[in-house]
Each structure stands twice: as C-alpha cells, then as structure tokens.
Amino acid sequence: MKLKADDINAYLKAVTKKVEEEKNYLSELDRKLGDGDHGVTMSIGFTAVDKKMDELKDEQKIKPILTSAGMSFLDAVGSSVGPLYASGLLKAGNSVGDKEELSDEDIVTLWSSFVDGVEHRSGAKVGDKTILDTLIPFRDSLTDSTDTTDVLEQFKEAVEAGKKGMEETEQMQSSIGRSSRLGERSIGTKDPGATSAYLIIQAFLDYMQSV
C-alpha cells in the first residue's frame, strides 16, 4: 500500500467527522469520570486540524501535514490531551522525514512513532486507565506482526488489540488525573481518552480499506 500527503490529509479530515459523530458519547463517559468535556475538547482540537488541512490541500510532503496538525490541535486545546496528541503527531511527522509517499513499513513506523510520542509525554503506563491502554497494545501488535507482509491485515490486528485494551479500561481503577480521586468508583466506565484513541486508529483502518 502507498499513501501520499493527500491521503493523510483526507484521513485527518475523516477523524474530525468521526469525533463529531461520537462527541456526545465521549463527553457522557467523561461526565462519569471527570469534568465531562472530553468530547467537546476533541471536537475543538480536530475542527482546528480540519481547517488546517484545508489550507494544506496542495501540500505534497507528509511531514508538514502531520506537524501542522499537531500544532493546530495544541493551539486549539488547552487541556492535557492537547500536548499528548501534539507530541504524537510531531513525532510521527519527524519519522517520515521529507517523504511524499509512505510504504507499508513507513506506515508502521509512523504509527509506532505517534504512540511513542504520546507515551513519552504522558508518563502513564498500561493499567492506569488512560489513552495508553488503547495505544500501547495497538503499537505492540503493529510492530510485532512479523508473520504477515499485508499491512492492512497487520493494522486490523493492531486495531483489535487497541479495542481490547480500550474495553478493559472499564474494569480498571483510575490511577492518574482527576478521575483517580474517584478511587473504586472509577471502575465500571470506559476511559474516554482510551475510547477516543480507539476511534482515531479505527478511522485510519477505515481509510486504508477505502483506498
């Protein structure tokens, strides 16, 4: 599979649409654990990304697409999720250098770098009931899938691993952030950050399947 800058642009615009569709659900989850604005926050961030993608519709290199998306998200969102996604997108952009086209291997590297960036900024670990409960299983599956040369199948398996991690947050007790104050009362609700992260990786799989 080969993806170009306009594919990454179109994918990020598809994420905006997906986030808008699930905005209320994400905020509903967050009302049970935090201040109830996660869906709105993600919507604000990706609406800014969407506008930036319109400005970059003729950009041929992939790095500026990703780094501009990261900075636009960060500028629009002041909460903790802003630096997380910005760090991921900037690291993903740096991973592709000056390329105008991504190979299968580049796609894996891009996503692995994205998760590395989020993980480094977050400081959380699997089991803390955060975004990383989706992203780390996703990354580990993606980079460990050496038994297939089909990047689409590789990505499907990775998204399934991320989905499993997301679903497991429902039975976790929050260890980090505002929701950690709830103690055992945080058990029984999926983490909104893990849920929105799943939507983002699922949207990329959907895009790959459409091209």
UniProtKB/TrEMBL annotation:
<dbReference type="InterPro" id="IPR012737">
    <property type="entry name" value="DhaK_L_YcgS"/>
</dbReference>
<comment type="subunit">
    <text>Homodimer. The dihydroxyacetone kinase complex is composed of a homodimer of DhaM, a homodimer of DhaK and the subunit DhaL.</text>
</comment>
<keyword id="KW-0808">Transferase</keyword>
<dbReference type="GO" id="GO:0019563">
    <property type="term" value="P:glycerol catabolic process"/>
</dbReference>
<comment type="pathway">
    <text>Polyol metabolism; glycerol degradation.</text>
</comment>
<dbReference type="Pfam" id="PF02734">
    <property type="entry name" value="Dak2"/>
</dbReference>
<dbReference type="InterPro" id="IPR004007">
    <property type="entry name" value="DhaL_dom"/>
</dbReference>
<dbReference type="InterPro" id="IPR050861">
    <property type="entry name" value="Dihydroxyacetone_Kinase"/>
</dbReference>
<protein>
    <recommendedName>
        <fullName>phosphoenolpyruvate--glycerone phosphotransferase</fullName>
        <ecNumber>2.7.1.121</ecNumber>
    </recommendedName>
</protein>
<dbReference type="InterPro" id="IPR036117">
    <property type="entry name" value="DhaL_dom_sf"/>
</dbReference>
<feature type="domain" description="DhaL">
    <location>
        <begin position="6"/>
        <end position="206"/>
    </location>
</feature>
<keyword id="KW-0319">Glycerol metabolism</keyword>
<dbReference type="GO" id="GO:0004371">
    <property type="term" value="F:glycerone kinase activity"/>
</dbReference>
<comment type="function">
    <text>ADP-binding subunit of the dihydroxyacetone kinase, which is responsible for the phosphoenolpyruvate (PEP)-dependent phosphorylation of dihydroxyacetone. DhaL-ADP is converted to DhaL-ATP via a phosphoryl group transfer from DhaM and transmits it to dihydroxyacetone binds to DhaK.</text>
</comment>
<keyword id="KW-0418">Kinase</keyword>
<dbReference type="GO" id="GO:0047324">
    <property type="term" value="F:phosphoenolpyruvate-glycerone phosphotransferase activity"/>
</dbReference>
<dbReference type="GO" id="GO:0005829">
    <property type="term" value="C:cytosol"/>
</dbReference>
<feature type="region of interest" description="Disordered">
    <location>
        <begin position="162"/>
        <end position="188"/>
    </location>
</feature>
